[in-house]
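Researcher: Before we compare anything, I want clean individual predictions. No alignment, no superposition, just each chain on its own. First chain goes here; please echo the sequence and then give the structure tokens.
Model: Echoing the first chain and its structure:
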Amino acid sequence: MDDFAKALDQQDDDFQKGQIVRGKVHSYEKNGVYVDIGGKSLAFVPAQEVGLNAFTDLGEVLPLNAEEEFLIIREQDAEGQLTLSLKQLKAKQAWDSIAEMQDSKQSVQVKVTGVNKGGVTVELQGARGFIPRSHLLEKDNLDELVGQNLTASFLEVDPEAKKLVLSQREATRSASFSQLELGQLIEGKVASIKPFGVFVDFDGNTGLIHVKQVSQTYIESLNSLFQVGQQIKAMIIDLDAGKNRISLSTKVLENYAGEMIENTAEVMTSADSRAHRAANKLLEG
């Protein structure tokens, strides 16, 4: 019997704070759950350490005789009792999983749980996150997003600080980017005009027609040829997923040098038929 008692004592000495243990739900009391983890005393899970989400009945989360893994959050007290947490273990596992998803550059589904001045709060695998207003597709009626599931990508993940920042805009852009191909003809609107080129918005993406890709002839002023909001067709001539950069060209659609300057409307009207020839040249080159 002395040897058996020593063995039990030795087993209990092996339990350390931060260790993950497996146990069976033994019984309940008003402020927590007793769990048998094979020690000389039952371990205890305080009610506030049971679940990540709100619940009304301890048995809903930890049914009687259910086996579950727990995290030791406090070593033995004077009576030899360990304190466990299911909540903190689930949170740790969630953050580990989120870090893995970030490393693999996955887009994820998050549920909007609330609204504040800067954006919306979201939930991902029990972890609380945030999407800034500037990274939402819907920037005005944020209250209508509560309860909705959004597709988002990661901007910042810091498990130590419990900081999770995501972007719906970037996820949409990445998904759209993956559908693009070299030689593809796109149609969009002129978003802005700079001395070096024209930015075009299309299908959730923004591409650039560099000034040297507008026409085979030198263009003195892009503002004389384009207007913000103007509908335009152009061909994708380069894609850089790492930098999320899309290079466009109208020059490749010209039948002769300077046609974009002399007769832009004709180039745009017949762009679809010109695109096949231009795409073949681009892909062959």
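Researcher: Okay. Second chain, same rules.
Model: Second chain and its structure:
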Amino acid sequence: MVGLLLAIGCAKSAEGLDGSCEPSALLQRGEQWIVGDNEQGRHLFVYDSRFKRQADLALPLDVDDIEALALDGSTLWVVGSHSTSKKGERRPGRERILRLDANPAVLTVDFAACPECVAARGEAPDKGGLNIEAAAVANGQLLLGLRGPMRGDKAILLVVDPTSGRVTESREVNLGGEAFRELVPWKSGFLAVSGPVADGGGAHHLWWWPSLDTAPTRRDATFPASTEAILPLEGEIVYLVDGDGKAGKCVTPAGVGRVNAALP
């Protein structure tokens, strides 16, 4: 496994990730690569495969702290973190999941079936507070991978009814004592990225999850701390590392990297 990390500035550049300083989500839709930024809740950014910016996708409603994107046919889900501020203050703009299709709508999640989630809503993210970091769709259900809280040393995956927002199942997932950082459909299963609950806690790890009825297995690939999103391709994985700042005021630039990986 060989990794390559490129620093990407916030100024417009033919090879840069212009428009996004804190990329937090990435998916492929046809020839487009769509990026969400956790500091820009009214737009998604459309790039080509060389991260040349093609267009902006305006959202009908602000989704603060975008942390995940999921695609189900022609339906695109934009997922807010649902986390509090660092001081434990709830932010309503983060507690949104936006469904983009012919009839855009906001999905409000009912966490009643996850007692740990309910108890963690007033806690700060680095202290195990509620924090959605990953999303995917399977069998018509929306899957939400949590960075916090955890259930002991197990990560939590929520299965959510995409119409009512009700959590129908709260699963324990063994990710080696780490939490969800990403969840991406791949072939007939999923690739997951795990990492510490707190920021700056070290490398992130790749897992292959053949189906929800099996256990994930760790793969021989790692990513830097603060890796926010991956896009698996044949023979390699593209990943995004969080920067610090906003467009035009980028204190620490984002990172774009590629890891050679033998995927299932």
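Researcher: What stands out in the second chain?
Model: Residues 23-230 form a domain with the Neuraminidase fold (CATH 2.120.10.100). Additionally, The chain has one domain: 23-230.
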